[in-house]
Amino acid sequence: MITHIQNVIRDTVTPSWVESVPYNFGEAKAGKLKAYEWRLMASIYLPLALVSLWGEGSHQCSKTVATKLRNVLDHTMMLFSAVYLACLRTITEARLTAYHHYMKTYVEDLHKHHPHISYRPTHHMVLHLYDFLILFGPVQSWWCFPFERLIGMLQRMPNNHKLGKFNFFTVCSAYLVSCRAIGANCHNFIYSFRKT
Amino acid sequence: MKDWNEITHVSALLAIICAVFAGVSRRMGDLILGMISVIVQLVSQSYGNQTDGNQTDDRFSSHIPKTLVTVLSRFNLDGQVTVYAVCPQCHCTFAPQKVLGSTKYQAQCNNEPRPGSGICGASLLDPSSKPIKTFVYHHFNDYLASLLSRPDIEKIMDARCDSMKESTTTSMAHGHTSDPFPVKDILAAKYMRTFKGPSGSTLFVDRPDGEGRYGFVLNVDFYNPEGNRGRSAKASCGIVAMACINLPLSIRYRPENMYLAGIIPGPHEPSLTTINHYLRPLITDMVSSWTKGTIFTRTASSLNGRMTRSAIIAVVCDLPAARKVSQLAGHKSQFCSRCTCYHLSELDRVDQENWQCRDAAGMRRQAYEWKNALSTKEQDNIFKNHGVRWSVLWELPYWDPTCQLIVDPMHSLFEGVINHHVEVVLSISSMTASAKSPPAFSYEFTQYEKSSTLSLNENEVRQIKQIHKLLTLPINDPEIDGDGDVEMTVGADDIGFDTHGLRQKLRKRVMSALEFVAKSLDVYPSRGSGEREIKKNDVVEALINWVSTK
Description:
The complex is a heterodimer. Chain A is 66% helix and 0% strand. By secondary structure, chain A is mainly α. The interface between A and B is large, with 109 and 125 residues.
């Protein structure tokens, strides 16, 4: 099963702007997946892999297993569809209701298909996402990705590894200085410098 | 910079490029500048000797700045910052006092962390009278001024405000009070359409006399400054950052347009209410910007200055940081900041129509009660009953955690539900699959309830659940494989578990739990083998027999 998913990841042809996920997905060596990689898994690779494994035309040893797996697949796809809808750049009424329907059914049926799973706070919070989608519009304006990128920038800045000492002054001001230099009207000069 | 000649300009530019792009440190920057001035001096000396005789000429070299800091401030690149001294014990921040031109800090912390606990009294300064721990705050107004000084940016920020206001008024005129879909941006969404300005009667985006109205999203997040590699040092410091929603998405998150207010120093995350001290400088600026407004003496479009008002529209954090910033009870107990779903037992509720929104006005009252409480006990009582503590965000007159404290989709969807579904529910991923295999079949076990005739302790109740899990695990015995129809193929290649293994594991459980499970399955042996009393082994064998019939 894991090999099948790995094959799908390896063999799928994706546009060049789609970043890759680890080919050895599922092995300890691949490490923990980043949020963005989970998004790719849920939107591209896992649907392809799981549908071909459990969906129509797949071979199972008996009918009961086939129906059972089909139900698990439908349930999983419910989640993937909800996530796809939530991340769209434009929000319409139809998409909102669809998101709510999929997410609600997903959370509701979790115990039906997987009785050994206990609920987590996130299962409650994702239902609230519906309210926030109405209040604040598309998620791009209020998710944490840009701030996590900012953290990445700060982590890469040189520092003296003395925590809580003066390094924050330098990190802070180094960040400030580089941002201001870019922000001032020397855009073109600096971007050309970066490319060369 | 009028007094600078070409040599000074070029050497200053070199120093800046080294600092900005090559990441050269201050000391190295000073060295570069020093070397340039030496070279210039030497050059002018050797040429001066040939032309003028003995006279040394340091006209050029004397103008070259000595330190990187001077260059950065001459180019106006250093930004306006205040270095706060932080109490190493209670995280309280202290602003520097200007005494006769030099900055000084008070020597001891005089903060009272909890009512009645007495003054902290920790020393703030090291022997050389520098602060032991510092927090650098980049002034919000300085950041906003840098945005407003760029003509293109200022125009965009105001234009987006106006276009939104127009669309709201036209939709109001047509009688659409609800949100006109499709929504493409946060400015067009419902919250901004109803967010009232400081006057309370008009919308925030409705700008009287061309006032600037700017909205921001605030983020607080903790990270490891030493990188995320497994073996690197463990530490945690936090960022306080904001992004301006008046900017369109395409440029909003460029690093030069984002605002980094400060870095909460490590090595440990501030606990409980202490994070308030780090947020206070920013919130104080935001409060005065909201109530009094901030006047910039000059911006790109208006040379005579203009009035601006800014607001924090939303707070975007992951769950733990969100609870810290808002000072609400942690997500592991009273988990929801939006509705009254209270206890972990309500986690599986999906009847969203019946969820009650928490009462923001009540929460505000409780937060102030907490702040003004006279004793630690009183504070604890308020927290216990309402799950609210004082957060500095309550100083914002418009703060409403039920709406503005956002559930972050990145953490809750991708790193939360999807991660959980793939790794735990489906067990795809050999990392977890080796530890836990998915159940081979599902069975409605009788759960233990308090009212049952047996009274079991917590450990036994937990073990009952574990036994249920063990019993439903797939078994890979050669003799069962033949008729193992019910076995699911999920993770079938990761199973290293046979009847013997199951027997071993079941034997490790306590007798009372095994007895309960066996009785509930109606397979409890009537008597032990060989007329003995019933032993653990007999129960285990009975359970295994039950499994093999499945």
